Fold this sequence. Notes:
Chain A is of the alpha/beta class.
Amino acid sequence: MLRRVKGLICQGPKLDPGCFLQARAWLSAAANQGAQIPEERLRMIFRTHESNPANHSEQHEGQHYSIPLQEVKVVFPHGLPRRFQAQMKTFNEACLMVRRPALELLGYLKSTNFAHPAVRYIIYGEKGTGKTMTLCHAVHYCAKQDWLVLHIPDAHLWVKNRTELLPSSYHKERFDQPLEASTWLKNFKVSNERFLKEIKTQRTYVWSKRESTEMGSPLGEVVEQGVTRVKNASDAVGVVLKELKTQCLLGSFRLLVAVDGVNALWGRSTLRKKDKSAISPEELTLVHNLRKMVMNDWNGGAIVTTLSQTGSLFKPRSAYLPHELLGKEGFDTLDPFVPIQVPNYSQREFESCYQYYLDRKWLQHEKVCTEEGREELLFLSNSNPWQLERISASL
Amino acid sequence: RLTQVRWSRYGPDYLEPEVNKEVYRKPGQELSEEEKMEQDLKALQPIKAAPCNVTSSLFSDPTISKFINMMMKGGNKVLARSIMSQTLEAVKRKQVEKYHQASEEERESIECNPYVIFHQALKNCQPIIGISNIKKGGKTYQVPTPLTDNRKRFLAMKWLITECREHKHYRIFMHEKLSQELLQAFNNEGPVIKRKHDIHKMAEANRAYAHYRWW
């Protein structure tokens, strides 16, 4: 009975969009009239079958769409938050919620003029409201549209956690980070295999006395060089970024630069030199090259970034606005940008998330399916997605 | 002269607070005579303050609170509570993962509710009969004794916690060790169930000395 009804109601997107908010009153009114409106109809509203982000519109707002796990491995080798990855493993599926800021961003991306300089979008909001997930939604859209995606999962990881710091061979005062650069190159290779074979280098690069990359060889070779010779990994990253920037102007491919935690590039770092003096992010090769990438002096793509207080260094927890997190230098560099604010869940989105967790058997406590349990969840989490996830984990 | 060190500052006429919201929602007609008398008493008598760990939340559970108190070290309730919530999450994650990967017939037999698993595991670990040391004629005998409900619950929780703290590797997180123990106890296997069976066997073996008990 359940399956047949679900099959009949596959018309999630065709349902009246405004009905959800009045769904409760509507259901009780209908029940009073004695009409047979199945409970399943309400529950199906939290899922949509439209898995291509290009076709998402306001009627899908608040609904979850699933990405096949094979695609997730290719499009997101890094970049999804850890708790979401654990959730993916538990539920055996990857479901993202379609929200208004993401729809706004996708609208802007669809109408980009590739002859103009790249527009910068900054996604900001309070802690745990879904900025990284909005970024992942945009990355998925661009991957589907066959853009070249340059996704840096967390720029904060490049300015903290003292591992190895080699003095750069290319530039005397800069420092290399071989480990972070090589992991990033490995993940970059997984997501953009096709482009690495097509794009050719425009200059020769000499790595050492015996190793060099000739002009006209595919970019994949530079990436291989960085992965195998870990000492040159940061320089390989710099070369890749430079090549992509110069060749994007020619128009053979579209480039999306997605940086999570862009405020790390202009903050302070906890790394220190051997004589215990502090290193500013400017002195790190990776950060220096990434700053050049985020400038709007190239065309043929877009730059989508997220501000993040969670991994940031020396910033108070209550800071979430661009001016507070980026500082004067960062704000001036990124200055003409499009801000996109991500708020907490609306009524409809909260209901959708709640129904999704109930459907996937995540909310297990006997009292949680009642009205009062739902209201208590709403109160405890204040509709904050991160809080809701943490609370519902132990219920 | 002896004076009590730990004694309640409340007088004898103070009543216990009622935290459950359901009790106050019952309309007046459904109440029995005794309950009406109690409500009239509450309107006039002073009531003790509710302790911090008792809430009117729907999700509070007295057994879980007791377990958290037993796990707590040095008064660090925050840490003990977070370990408990991580344990429940770990148990739920393992079961839900199994649920989603199982076929239709197996799905009905998989229990996903971490609270049900916790209560059932605790029930499986509770011993039916206990052992106490009685000294007679210079020798100490292990005499089988009955146990109260509270003592059984206490022993089950104590065994679970000591098992995780002492017999497992110290670098594994407590919530991982606890979730593993709870799932094993739920399926009636594992070291805690073995310890319960050992106590039972010892009591059965020392049946002859049961008459040494005088209470």
